[in-house]
Every structure is written in C-alpha cells, then in structure tokens.
Specification:
mainly alpha
Length: 118
C-alpha cells in the first residue's frame, strides 16, 4: 500500500529521494490486480453476514425482553435492528454493483487479451 503524505512542506519534499514520484498522478491510482471474483464480492458478502447477525441478535434480544427471562435495556434491541438493517441493505445494494464491476473488469481483460493477441 502506498503512503503518500500530500500535506508535507515543499522543502521537505525537495530533500526526499522520491519527491517526483510522490506527486505523479498515476501513483495515486490503486489498481486491483486480483483475478478472482472474491475480490469483488468480499466486502458486500461481509456486510450481508454482519447485517444478518445483527438482525438475528436483535430478534433474539426482543424475544428475551418479551419473555422477561433477561434484563435487556429497552433501546438495545431497536438499535441493533436498525444498524443491522443498514448493513444488510447496503450489502444487498452493493452485490449487483460488485457483479457488474466483476463482469466489466472481465470484459476489459478479455478485450485487452484480444488486442494483445492480434
């Protein structure tokens, strides 16, 4: 991972051996070189799992609160439910975007291979 400090003073940058490379715009672009689909689906899948666990946990807390078997604070269940739903909906919305990105990157790779082959 590239660590670029853009807030350094110009005098500090001039003494640095990589001062020219630090401000090259092509160095600021992070290129994903992973070829597996898991690179695109890992974050949305993680959000789906965490959101599902939070929603399930809030349902369990609600059931325990209603059955009066445990002393659970009144606001804890709804807070976990709302945070879980935010994570779950974000993961659900992000999944088609990740699929489209993976498909687009695959098409770009296939097109670049076709150009190199010809």
């Amino acid at each position: 991972m590239v660590n670029i400090d853009l807030l350094k003073a110009p005098s500090m940058l001039s003494s640095s051996p990589c001062a020219i490379r630090s401000f090259n715009p092509s160095n600021l672009l992070i290129k994903q070189t992973c070829g597996s689909p898991w690179c695109y689906y890992s974050r949305p899948a993680t959000l789906l799992v965490v959101g599902g666990l939070l929603v399930a946990g809030s349902a369990a807390m609600g059931a325990l609160h209603l059955s009066r078997h445990a002393a659970i604070p009144h606001a804890l269940g709804p807070v976990c439910l709302s945070i879980g739903l935010v994570f779950l909906v974000t993961g659900i919305v992000w999944m088609p975007v990740a699929a489209q990105t993976a498909r687009h990157k695959g098409l770009l790779r296939a097109m670049s291979r076709g150009i190199e082959a010809s």
